[in-house]
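Question (not urgent): is this output format expected?
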Amino acid sequence: MNRKWNFLLLSLLVTVACVFGVDYETSSVDSSAYDSGDIAWMIVASAFVLLMTPGLAFFYGGMVNKKNVISTMLQSFVALGVISVLWVVVGFSLCFGESLGGVIGDPRTFFVFDGVGLAPNSAFAETIPFLLFALFQLKFAIITPALITGSFAGRIRFRGYILFIVLFSLIVYPPLAHMTWHPDGLLRNLGVLDFAGGTVVHMSAGFAALAGAIFLGQRKDSVNQPANIPFVILGTGLLWFGWFGFNSGSALGANGVAVKAFANTNLASATAMITWVFYERYQNRKMSALGACIGAIVGLVAITPAAGFVSLSHSILIGFIAALTSNWAIQIQKRFAIDDTLDVFPSHGVGGVVGMILTGVLAEDVGLIHGDSTVFIRHMVTLVGVAIGTFGVSYLLYAAVNRIIPLRVRSDQEQRGLDHSQHGERME
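Got this back:
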């Protein structure tokens, strides 16, 4: 793609936003439906979730070799800009616009945030401005494509990556979000439970990451020496902190469900972390800081779909099972010589699958342990459909982007490192 087209396309997008954008009417808004506590919490929760993307940048950046730290971190960080603009123009409408067959939203419903104002929308959240709901959901849309980047770190062309996340956020993410969280969504009406994004965020990112690792192939130098373990620890802390907004904020209010999700989120992550390091010792390996961080993230991933639906004791079980399963998945993936650089699929894809399965088993009142197999069966069918659909469509998107902008950097660029070859910068 001619480099001039990049700027021209951005200019067109900005023009559309300015021409069709809608100003907020404040004078006619009835604030009697507001709950100041809910509004305060959801603003904070939205900020928490936004912080997760810079946290992810540190988490991934510390795990790659020194010549790819900046490029890896920027691949996460740039999603804050790209997806924010895309979301306002059409992304939110595709996810939460008027339902088209329960599968996707009508892009005209909230085009350029038309109708997304300060008045509450009772179909989504009754006590907060509709704009706040849209901004909270934006943070999920931002971090999902950013999660994918760890699978092809060190070998993807930056411009091609940007085009891919735009297409992913228009084609893959919206149907999953709509079907799962829209009041008329297909999966929601079938009784599928996904409190904060087990399928929408983690499975979609995990299987897209697997497709990317396979499509781009193995690195020339497969030895990966983490550049900065303290970066990984810092990133883990920021992600853990932000995840409280991710899960507790999905209660859409300052209420008991939010507190429950908060407690479950912390306990599952803590359990997964200590399970991972003690399992390393069981395998006669050292208890590593890297292992502790990966274990904590896996626990956070697995509890995400279940956070508001299970008890504290069940959150412990989810963290324990997820840590072991993802650990095994990493070993299995290596046997197939799939170069998923930072093990995104075993951590997020497999972690999301475990979380969704155990949600179907353990969910209060409707889980398999309560004698009701309906939700569990529907979860299993959904998992298969999401896995196949996300992997297949993502692989086609990689192929389509590759026809426009070659996705893989040249061998000499890969050897020098993407920090220098893609961005002209170096980490000293």
